[in-house]
Amino acid sequence: MTHGRIYLDHAATTPLAEAALAAMQSWWGVAASASSVHRSGQRARAAVETARERVAGAVGAHPSKIVFTSGATEADGLAVRGALDAADPQAALAYGATEHAAVLRPAEREGLGGRPVRSVPPAANGAMSVDALRAVLASLEGPVGLVAAMHTNNETGGLADVPALAEAAHRAGAVFLCDAAQAFGVTPLDVHALGADLVTISSHKIGGPQGVGALWIRAGTTVVPQQLGGEQERGMRAGTHPVAALVGFGAAAEAAGREAEARGRTCAARRDLLASLLHATPGIEPNGTGPRGPKHLNLHVAGVDGETLLMALDDAGVEVSAGSACAAGSVEPSHVLLAMGLPAAKARASLRFSVAPDTTEAEVHEAAARVAEVVGRLRALGAPAAVS
Predict the structure, then answer these.
(1) The predicted structure's pLDDT at residue 351
(2) Sign of the CA dihedral 325, 331, 337, 338?
(3) What 3-state DSSP class applies to 351?
(4) pLDDT at residue 255, rounded to an integer
(5) How many other C-beta atoms are found inside a 10 Å radius of the C-beta of residue 120?
(6) Is 50 exposed, middle or buried (0-12, 13-18, 19+ CB in 10 A)?
(7) Per-residue model confidence (pLDDT) at position 15
């Protein structure tokens, strides 16, 4: 079948914004390292530092506390391993059971190395529960080195009470890391108001280029560098700066910081419209309850197999996500939904829709109509539902 395609996977990545593209173009093909002392190198350095100022301004930070990375995944890894390398070897790590793999995999590695690690159960919306964190911290006998929690869950959009989580972490003597990649651009962010010690963000979630991100480090917080080599990023992260990408990141971040509140309102309106239209189809129900960010919608679709539905929607021109990676040709149950208590079968038959400020009402109506048609057709054909 032939359809105009409707992209509703903005939580995965976003189209490159015109402002970011325009800013990057003058740097394409320029041979200049920001670490070189000649004039071209110093021009590149000035462009990198301007980008740093723009990113810092978007989150209420001082530019000197921004470390550029290859993305939020590297930023999370640097924060987790760097903060713990500076802590007591037996200081515990507490992290949300619904965190992104960028935190989960380093946490597993710390555990294999002998460090005490504890997973914190989520609240009903998929974000870290403050009460659960307090209970976990109270149960630990030794020191706590780090607490890691998302601001906005990448699958459900569940909003965490970040200041309360930060307070609980600090009472336990721990450094607090907040992954704010899914909040940046649609929720006003001020790193100091969050109460965090470390905050990670990503360029490609806000209309910037892929391949760059940033870690904010509060003054007085020690992070041991993980990528060694040169003295770039004040020795915190070695490697030649991708000048064009960072310039694009800076342009996108400046717009994101300035327009976050308005973008969030528009996203929430489109998301809520999509939810109301999709819920009109019997057997489509939301996953989770409670506060959530403005762009996410996570739904269970009864009576169909999740992988079959995902492929059929793609064929119908609706691009969404299963909320978890595809492995060996099958969609594995989302660890987020499982941690929230959903049965494996229900988790397998769930989809994540995520909108953007430029998602139109017409696209929302058309997407909902296509979803209803595909779900009805699959049910009529007797497409097998997932089994646990």
Answers:
(1) 95
(2) negative
(3) strand
(4) 96
(5) 25
(6) middle
(7) 97
Mean pLDDT of 374-381: 93
Residue 102 φ/ψ, nearest 5 degrees: -60, -25
Phi, psi at 119, each rounded to 5°:
-90, 135
At residue 189, what are phi and psi to the nearest 5 degrees? -120, 135
The answer to whether residue 31 scores a pLDDT higher than 90 is no
Q: Other C-beta atoms within 10 Å of 353: how many?
A: 28
Question: Whole-angstrom Cα distance, residue 174 to residue 149?
Answer: 13
User: Cα–Cα distance between 329 and 308 in angstroms, integer?
Assistant: 11
pTM of the full structure? 0.94
pLDDT band at 384 (very low <50, low <70, confident <90, very high): low
Q: Which two tokens stand for residue 76?
A: 């999370």
Reduced to 3 states (helix: H, G, I; strand: E, B; else coil), residue 42 is helix
HSE-CB for 197 with a 13 A CA cutoff? 23
Rounded-to-integer distance, Cα 46 and Cα 41, Å? 9
Q: Which amino acid is at 322?
A: A
pLDDT reported for residue 325: 42
Q: What is the DSSP letter of 233?
A: G
Q: Is 326 a catalytic residue?
A: yes
Q: What is the DSSP string of 132-169?
A: HHHHHHHH--S-EEEEEEESB-TTT-BBP-HHHHHHHH
Contact (Cβ atoms closer than 8 angstroms) between residue 150 and residue 99:
yes
What pLDDT, in 10s, does the model give residues 204-252?
999 999 999 999 999 999 999 999 998 999 999 999 999 999 999 999 9
Distance CA 354, CA 274 (A): 10
Residue with tokens 């713990």: 84
Cα–Cα distance measured from residue 79 to residue 217, given in angstroms and rounded to the nearest whole number: 9
Residues 185/263, Cβ–Cβ less than 8 Å: yes
Q: Catalytic residue, from 22, 325, 326, 369: name it.
A: 326
